[in-house]
Amino acid sequence: MMKKKSLIKNRILQYLTYKGISKYNFYKETGIARGVLDQNNGITEDNIQKFLAFAQDISPSWLLTGSGNMLKSQFAFEAAGEPIRVFREEVSQEVQRIPLYSLESMSGVIGVFEELRNQAPLGYISIPNLPNADGAIYMSGNSMYPLLKAGDIVIYKILNDKANIFWGEMYVLSIVHQGDSYLTVKRVQKGRKFNQIKLVSQNPSYQEKLMPFDAVKTVAHVVASISFNTIY
What we know:
The chain is of the alpha+beta class. The protein has helices spanning 7-19, 23-30, 45-54, 60-65, 112-117; strands spanning 75-79, 82-86, 92-93, 98-101, 123-125, 130-131, 135-138, 153-158, 170-177, 180-190, 196-200, 209-212, 216-226. Helix content is 19%, strand content 30%.
């Protein structure tokens, strides 16, 4: 009788896919023997402990039983029929009015967030108990599909210091590199070299991109998103 892969292994693979972490980097960072996740058998307690030490944001209860949310700080709820995703737990306010901005009138991206603050917002978003946020913008493109798609709204909190990035989480980044400037939403991981970062898309059709850390001018943490599900 063929053995089935353990459910815990399947959840580990689900976590790696969600975070955009390759198996190569997983084995390298955890010290777990290569190929373990592909074997159709159980997983040792020692390897579970190594994984939990590596993935400190994962919910142990979800890993072991599948109950609850994948991440300790991940909440999912609905407001007005629109799914809301909160990606990291931060100090929250009971009610706040978050300005929703348009990027169409932007003259550049170097001072993108400062310039947005000087704009009249398109409107305001109010969601109870949302982490502190500075603003919200519409997504363009589908590099983060299926998690986010063009037309969805991302709510962000600007980092005062780029050194405060939490590797593996999602950010809005303004980038100037080799004469090109653009604004992008990506998961951010450490690069292969010193002073290098890796921008990771959720959509498998998009390749990872290595970028000098100095090319990143401003960083804003995505604290929540609003997805619109329409049939018209």
